[in-house]
Specification:
48% of the residues lie in helices and 7% in strands. The protein is built from five helices and two strands, in the order ααααββα. The mean pLDDT is 89. The chain binds heme C (HEC).
């Protein structure tokens, strides 16, 4: 079957080009990588509040998204174990990453 490669190759090309959410940030993985989950867990308090608690708080705010954005981009002063330190900023790898993180937090 001489034709086979001509049939199979386009199939592979098509598959590898399918954008199976390749663009979408895996938020949880990224927060893990950036060290956020050392201090935050989804449902329990660690050094920082849980993601669920944060979601609840910001969903109730009229300007919740903006407030979250401000928190994640301005390194406000926080207290960990009684010591003051600057909060870690989220480091986006590309445009829209921060929006995805904000949406992800609020969806909990
Ligand atoms: C060293 C521990 C630590 C790390 C690392 C850390 N946080 Fe925090 N985070 C805190 C603490 C403590 C607070 C609570 C600050 C306050 O309420 O004054 C907080 C607050 C927040 C809040 C706001 C919660 C609220 O109730 O207002 C968000 C959102 C947040 N962190 C996300 C992140 C993200 C995203 C990262 C990673 C880029 C991260 N944090 C890394 C300790 C940490």
């Amino acid at each position: 079957m001489r034709l086979t490669p001509f049939l199979i190759t386009p199939l592979f090309v098509a598959l590898s080009l399918t954008p199976v959410d390749a663009q979408a940030l895996n938020v949880q993985k990224e927060l893990q990588k950036q060290g956020c989950l050392k201090c935050h867990a989804i449902s329990r308090q660690k050094d920082g509040p849980s993601i669920k608690e944060t979601a609840k708080k910001y969903r109730e705010l009229e300007n919740g998204k903006e407030a979250l954005r401000a928190h994640l981009t301005s390194a406000p002063e926080i207290e960990v174990d009684g010591k003051k330190e600057k909060h870690k900023m989220f480091e986006p790898k590309s445009d829209g990453d921060l929006d995805e993180v904000i949406e992800w937090i609020l969806s909990h």
